[in-house]
Structure formats: C-alpha cells, structure tokens
Amino acid sequence: LLKAPQRKSAAGRSHSFLLYTLEPSMAVRIRLQRFGAKKKPYYRIVTADGRAKRDGRFLEQVGTYDPMQNPHKITFKTERMAYWMSVGAQPSDTVKSLYAKFNRDNA
Fold it and tell me: Rounded distance, CA 33 to CA 4, Å?
C-alpha cells in the first residue's frame, strides 16, 4: 500500500489518505452466470474475479449452457478456455464437468 503523508483537518485532527492500492494478482475463476426467467435457467460461462458476485462483473464470456434443451446445449470458445486455464484461471466444479462433457461429445 502506498499512503499519502499525514494531513491536518480543519478541526486539527490528522488524517492519512490512501492514494493507491497495489492489487495482488487477481484470482480468476471460470464460472456460470445465471440468466433466464424463473424455472427456465440459461447460463453464460464467464471468467471473473473470484471476489465478484455470481451475476456481477466478469472479464470475458467463454461459453454458454442451456439446460432446458434436450439434450443440454453446451458451447465453449475452446481457444479462449485454453488461454484462461493456461494463465491460471480455476474452473468451478460445474464448469469443469461441463467442459469435460463438451470435450467428450466433440472429440
């Protein structure tokens, strides 16, 4: 952390103001982001900071999963998945199983 020097307020109290925070390397997760209506889910497979909300900010969309179709429809951008996994992104358990199923079906 880099901090600014102490400053005096009008009341005479000293305050320290944070100028910059040095972000540690971000823990990137590959996970599902839910869309669709009640009882009719549709998921995007996204890469996101591990601290982000389930349906919050994400870095990139790398696929989709539609469990309402028979059989379930799974799509992946395989080159982007390979890239994200090569730089250390950790897939969730569900995404890991979906990716294995996708590779098995498209082999």
Answer: 39
